[in-house]
């Protein structure tokens, strides 16, 4: 009895050890089939003595170095260099100030731009298409980024990743600054919680002999949800935080105590947000499209908790001495896209006074200056008047040819698309306000004909300047008679002095009222999952796998086989290699699922390596004797620095 008590004491000790030990680093190597042997590759990798041929690094296919990232400039930087002088921040080539992820310094093209910048004494220089083309050429010469792709590389769109406020010179970063990418689109990383580990424990009580296993299951990891929040009106918060991880489940404990589930994580997004998985195919439906306040959609399901040894008790094995690890949480990058960014978009030619108007209407403080393209990225502002709020968006000035990419505005025309109404600001001091109006309308129409269906209020600005009155009557007559605009929607204002601005807001609100309440219609067949899917879907079956042989020769002459399959990979990930019985179970599953046979059919030989998805590698052996497997497992435990606390004393364990 005494001996029994000692055995049980050591048993409990090991149980605790198993639940608290850190996860085994991946990739790991463990020995398969009869000679299955959990081996890991903790640095430095020490080949176990039992292996005649310790596996050499085998992933030759991955040997190619990732393409070198090139330093890039930023479009706005180039434009600024043309339009005005800016105080120089730091030396050229040092990656810019503040950009945590700033990569290489600017190349030859960027240096050339620096020189240009020094040469130019231009606070006001008309920007011609030639200038823009030259800037484009210089930028491309400097190794500029991809025009089309507005997403920033693999990194999330957060300022944390890109170095908020810093110049984005890293090759992975694209031309648009993070503030714009996050304005109506953002890319974030989400990870659901890992499942808690199962527990190995046995009931120990005075006068209860053979108390049996009683290790509890680990708790499920927290889910990740997206929740629509009416208090938000842009995706800008994702500039500050771009990584979201839910809590892990707690480990199971003895006395049949299951671990607590991990806390779910809610990511709050504005109404009208569409959420897509980055890696989903073109035709795949979005994960979510949230239109109503409080609407929730599941983005990532929490990892399953590992089962404790109580769950593995059977008639044949009444005292299982192993437990599972928790399933790793699912991680993915998701792209967020906002359908409606503002109630009203402010459009107009450069220097018309759009930013000035936004600054008097709202608390926003955009940059205002007397040269074109002061505004390089859109600005949002909330106008509060008469107990009502209206969101205005000021976009960079549009040029003729904007729809084809001239100027800056074309990048932001899609923002205009996401406004319900437009305020068209005309510069009263312009030599041809009507021409300006027609040019902008044409650009909007060419970009997207639907833009012209949006109701417009025209604000004839700068009426405080004496000669602005010259054209006012003519402009009004033209807009009302030729363009058919409602006379109440053509207003003279002076953004600088605030004259007429209240009337403008009232006119805009009348237009919004005519449109009726903002109803968001679903535009996609988004999944909008509100509950976790069934745990075992038909796709993830243990007998669904593929076996492939690496065609390239391996160092040492051994061969490498790839086995891929969602269920078998998950199974291997949840196997706790510290338990001998778990290793034997893994080996049985390889046989039962048909993987062993498929590998033999593919020509596997003793000592060859098998890579199991991303989970790890193990060395193939046909040895089936208990002693060989146990010996190999022991050797592996030693090589990983694990002790086999209590193993020899488990009920029924081999000595
Ligand atoms: N006199 C006068 N000047 C104005 C008025 N509104 C704007 N301005 C001036 O016009 C210049 C351009 O104003 P911004 O608000 O920067 O013009 P913008 O349309 O935002 O220009 P971009 O962002 O470059 O497209 C600034 O110098 C303003 O002070 C106005 O009502 N009266
Ligand atoms: Mg502006």
Automatic annotation (TrEMBL):
Its cofactor is Mg(2+). It holds the Pfam family MMR_HSR1. Residues 92-108, 153-171 have a biased composition (Gly residues). Keywords: GTP-binding, Magnesium, Metal-binding, Nucleotide-binding. GO terms for molecular function: GTP binding; GTPase activity; magnesium ion binding. GO terms for biological process: ribosome biogenesis. This is GTP-binding protein, chloroplastic. Residues 49-67 have a biased composition (Low complexity). GO terms for cellular component: mitochondrion. Belongs to the TRAFAC class OBG-HflX-like GTPase superfamily. OBG GTPase family. The keyword DNA repair does not apply. Residues 537-622 form the OCT domain. Residues 180-341 form the Obg domain. Residues 1-122, 141-174 are annotated as: Disordered. Residues 342-513 form the OBG-type G domain. NCBIfam families: Obg_CgtA, Obg_CgtA_exten, PRK12296.1, PRK12297.1, PRK12299.1. The keyword Magnesium applies. Residues 8-21 have a biased composition (Polar residues). It comes from Raphidocelis subcapitata.
């Amino acid at each position: 009895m005494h001996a029994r008590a000692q055995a049980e004491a050591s048993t409990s000790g090991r149980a605790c050890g198993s639940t608290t030990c850190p996860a085994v680093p991946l990739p790991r190597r463990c020995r398969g089939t009869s000679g299955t042997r959990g081996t890991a590759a903790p640095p430095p990798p020490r080949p176990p003595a039992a292996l005649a041929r310790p596996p050499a690094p085998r992933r030759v296919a991955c040997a190619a170095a990732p393409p070198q990232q090139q330093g890039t400039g930023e479009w706005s930087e180039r434009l600024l260099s043309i339009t005005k002088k800016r105080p120089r921040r730091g030396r050229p080539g040092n990656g810019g100030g503040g950009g945590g992820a700033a990569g290489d310094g600017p190349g030859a093209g960027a240096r050339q731009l620096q020189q240009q910048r020094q040469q130019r004494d231009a606070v006001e220089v008309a920007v011609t298409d030639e200038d823009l083309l030259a800037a484009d050429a210089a930028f491309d010469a400097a190794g500029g980024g991809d025009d089309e792709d507005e997403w920033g590389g693999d990194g999330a769109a957060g300022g944390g990743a890109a170095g908020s406020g810093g110049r984005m010179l890293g090759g992975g970063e694209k031309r648009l600054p993070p503030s714009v990418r996050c304005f109506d689109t953002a890319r974030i990383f989400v990870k659901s919680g890992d499942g808690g580990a199962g527990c190995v424990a046995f009931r120990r009580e005075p006068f209860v002999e053979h108390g049996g296993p009683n290790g509890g299951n680990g708790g499920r990891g927290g889910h990740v949800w997206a929740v629509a929040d009416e208090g938000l009106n842009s995706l800008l918060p994702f500039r500050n935080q771009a990584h979201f991880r839910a809590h892990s489940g707690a480990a199971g404990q003895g006395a049949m105590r299951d671990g607590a589930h991990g806390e779910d994580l809610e990511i709050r997004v504005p109404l009208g947000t569409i959420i897509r998985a980055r890696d989903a195919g073109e035709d795949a439906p979005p994960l979510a499209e949230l239109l109503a306040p409080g609407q929730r959609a599941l983005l990532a399901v929490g990892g399953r908790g590992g089962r404790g040894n109580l769950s593995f008790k059977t008639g044949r094995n009444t005292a299982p001495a192993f437990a599972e690890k928790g399933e790793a949480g699912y991680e993915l990058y998701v792209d967020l896209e906002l359908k409606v960014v503002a109630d009203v978009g402010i459009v107009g030619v450069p220097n018309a006074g759009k930013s000035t108007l936004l600054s008097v209407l709202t608390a926003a403080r955009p940059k205002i200056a007397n040269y074109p393209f002061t505004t390089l990225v859109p600005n949002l502002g909330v106008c509060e008047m008469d107990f009502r709020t209206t969101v205005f968006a000021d976009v960079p000035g549009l040029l003729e040819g904007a729809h084809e990419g001239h100027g800056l505005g074309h990048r932001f025309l899609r923002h205009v698309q996401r406004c319900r109404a437009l305020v068209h600001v005309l510069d009263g001091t312009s030599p041809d306000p009507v021409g300006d109006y027609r040019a902008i309308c044409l650009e909007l129409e060419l970009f997207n004909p639907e833009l012209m269906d949006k109701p417009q209020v025209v604000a004839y600005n700068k009426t405080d300047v004496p000669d602005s009155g010259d054209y006012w009557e003519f402009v009004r007559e033209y807009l009302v008679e030729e363009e058919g605009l409602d006379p109440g929607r053509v207003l003279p204002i002076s953004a600088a002095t605030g004259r007429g601005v209240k009337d403008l807001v009232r006119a805009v609100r009348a237009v919004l009222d005519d449109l009726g309440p903002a109803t968001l219609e679903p535009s996609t067949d988004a999944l909008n999952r509100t509950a976790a899917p069934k745990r075992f879907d038909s796709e993830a079956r243990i007998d669904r796998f593929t076996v492939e042989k690496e065609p390239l020769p391996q160092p040492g002459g051994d061969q490498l086989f790839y086995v891929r399959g969602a269920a078998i990979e998950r199974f291997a990930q949840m196997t706790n290699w510290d338990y001998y019985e778990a290793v034997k179970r893994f080996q049985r599953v390889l046989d039962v699922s048909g993987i062993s046979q498929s590998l033999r059919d593919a020509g596997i030989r003793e000592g060859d390596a098998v890579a199991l998805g991303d989970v790890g590698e193990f060395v193939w052996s046909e040895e089936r004797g208990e002693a060989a497997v146990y010996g190999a497992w022991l050797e592996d435990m030693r090589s990983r620095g694990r002790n086999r606390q209590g193993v020899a004393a488990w009920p029924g364990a081999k000595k």
